[in-house]
Amino acid sequence: MKKIIFFALSLLFFAAVASRAAEAPPAADDPALESRMMQLASQLRCLVCQNETIADSTADLASDLRNQIRVQMKRGETNQEIIDYMVARYGDFVLYKPPLKTTTLLLWAGPFVLLLVGLAALFYRLSRRPSAPPPQLTEAERARAAALLATNEAGEQG
Predict the structure, then answer these.
(1) At what angle do helices 31-41 and 79-90 cross, to 10 degrees?
(2) What is the pTM of this model?
(3) For 22-45, what is the HEC assignment?
(4) Which one of 23, 91, 122, 131 has the largest count of C-beta atoms within 10 Å of its C-beta?
(5) Which CATH superfamily is domain 22-119 in?
């Protein structure tokens, strides 16, 4: 019985390991070309993941874009020509570090503008807040406070 359980667990373990195995990404015949492709792909954003480069992403689209870069490199296109092609096709968003120009100004300045607007709103709100009036005591509360102070002063002197 123990052998059957051990066999079943072993089979389950190997099945789990096999299911996690991924197909190796296709590599170029030329290692220099592959290195150049990965260097260029690290400058381009994955359009699916949006927070990873094409080089780091495992998305199908990123794999297709890496293959497209390989094809263009085999045709003899320069890195800048490939980048220009990607930008023409997908816009400046495909660049992992978009250039600073009028169409991307909000992208670069937006966080700072939002921070300044938030701080201005906070200071405005705090400056417009009325100060709290001093607490008003009733005659009974004043008499009780005076009695407590007198008792305290008598205790300290004695």
Answers:
(1) 40
(2) 0.53
(3) CCCCCCCCCHHHHHHHHHHHCCEE
(4) 91
(5) Cytochrome C biogenesis protein (1.10.8.640)
